[in-house]
DNA sequence: GCAAATTAATGATTTATTCAAG
DNA sequence: CTTGAATAAATCATTAATTTGC
């Protein structure tokens, strides 16, 4: 599978070039990957800052054409650049906002009383209300295993073998809050956690 | 953030009485809205990924019961979570398309082994025949120049012709990085350089 | 100063989702 | 329920920075 790049470097736009290409190394037009000039990066960044995130074909074409003025470039490079930049910006943002860890605890106070359901919810589900306010852990009425399976059909448990092992461990302990550093994987195997029977 | 959140916390306040001040701001954060733990979100997300969209009453009941193991939760929270998540996923998709001025994607990435050409993307021009059957008058872009403006809305256009001359010089010299300590403004005026047609 | 070795950035691919037609 | 379009996430791979020893 991991075949090494069939030589598509051949296509390497020899058109532009004259060994100009990029950057210091002097290694001229390597068939390798695009190496943007600072002007190109500047323009792309400006466009991104202006709100452009996933340019259309036409836009890519135009951008590419314009940027070719500053050096070798292909439209796919523009395409990829926006993909990567968008993804990595988001990623960066995500990392920053990972500190929000103090949920719960505060509001765990005394709001156990049943709140009259909002209209819509009540309309649809007036038949039953929440009775799961008991936080004493095991409270599950044995019902029908089958439904549980329906409910968590596939990998919803997102647990690999290792997780299952962890589940075994957690089995006895009352509270598995021993979760790892982050949100590694909640120790929860819903497939059979219901019915102790 | 905005989070419309009908203020059903008010109803709850009738019982709680702990300074139900309901947090002036209207955000109602303090009034005790559900604040899911990462484990809860994980499970819900997994369920969603597994294909669950609108859980039935029973399912909600069970999910809620399970998730109460990780923290405070009510069945209505589960109900709303699914509703919101579904809606926002859809919304997100829509928004991305529109927000990016992303009218029509003729841009596809040919992947896999199918294509003889190297594994990269290829452009496909749908060549949509302009049905100008805009029933509501303003369908979309009047193409042409306007699109260019859309494309470079802000300051990315702040350039003069002189810069272009500079490019000429660069042609021979390895790199014109010399100018402008950093990259003050890339010599580029995209506004009208495009459409020769 | 300079290169080999190592690390950090980032370009390019692959994989897994999502919604929506059919 | 299946499939197509279009990502976004995750991953791979290569180039640039940098460190290090000489």
From TrEMBL, chains A, B:
Coiled coil: none
One Gene Ontology cellular component: nucleus
Main location class: nucleus
Keywords: Developmental protein, DNA-binding, Homeobox, Nucleus, Transcription, Transcription regulation
Domain of life according to the entry: Eukaryota
Protein's cellular compartments: Nucleus
Homeobox domain: residues covered: 27-92
Gene3D superfamilies reported for this sequence: Homeodomain-like (1.10.10.60)
Protein name: Homeodomain transcription factor
DNA-binding positions: 29-93
InterPro entries reported in the protein's UniProt record: HD, Homeodomain-like_sf, WUSCHEL-like
PANTHER family found in the cross-reference section: WUSCHEL-RELATED HOMEOBOX 1-RELATED, WUSCHEL-RELATED HOMEOBOX 7
Gene name of the encoded protein: TorWOX5
Pfam families hit by this protein: Homeodomain (PF00046)
Organism: Trema orientale (Charcoal tree)
Similarity remark: Belongs to the WUS homeobox family.
GO molecular function: DNA binding; DNA-binding transcription factor activity
Gene Ontology biological process terms, A to Z: plant organ development
Keyword match DNA-binding: yes
SMART domains: HOX
């Amino acid at each position: 599978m991991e075949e090494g790049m069939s030589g598509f470097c051949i296509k390497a736009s020899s058109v532009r070039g004259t060994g100009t290409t990029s950057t210091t190394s002097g290694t001229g037009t390597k068939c390798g990957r695009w190496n943007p000039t600072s002007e190109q990066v500047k323009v792309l960044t400006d466009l991104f800052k202006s709100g452009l995130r996933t340019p259309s074909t036409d836009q890519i074409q135009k951008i590419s054409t314009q940027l070719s003025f500053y050096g070798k470039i292909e439209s796919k490079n523009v395409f990829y650049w926006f993909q990567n930049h968008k993804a990595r910006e988001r990623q960066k943002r995500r990392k920053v906002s990972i500190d929000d860890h103090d949920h719960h605890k505060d509001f765990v106070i005394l709001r156990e009383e049943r709140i009259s359901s909002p209209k819509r919810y009540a309309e649809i589900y007036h038949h039953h209300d929440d009775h799961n306010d008991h936080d004493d852990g095991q409270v599950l009425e044995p019902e029908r295993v089958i439904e549980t399976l329906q409910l968590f059909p596939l990998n919803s448990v997102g647990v690999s073998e290792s997780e299952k092992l962890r589940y075994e461990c957690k089995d006895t302990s009352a509270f598995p809050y021993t979760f790892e550093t982050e949100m590694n994987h909640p120790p929860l195997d819903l497939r059979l956690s219901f019915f102790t029977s």
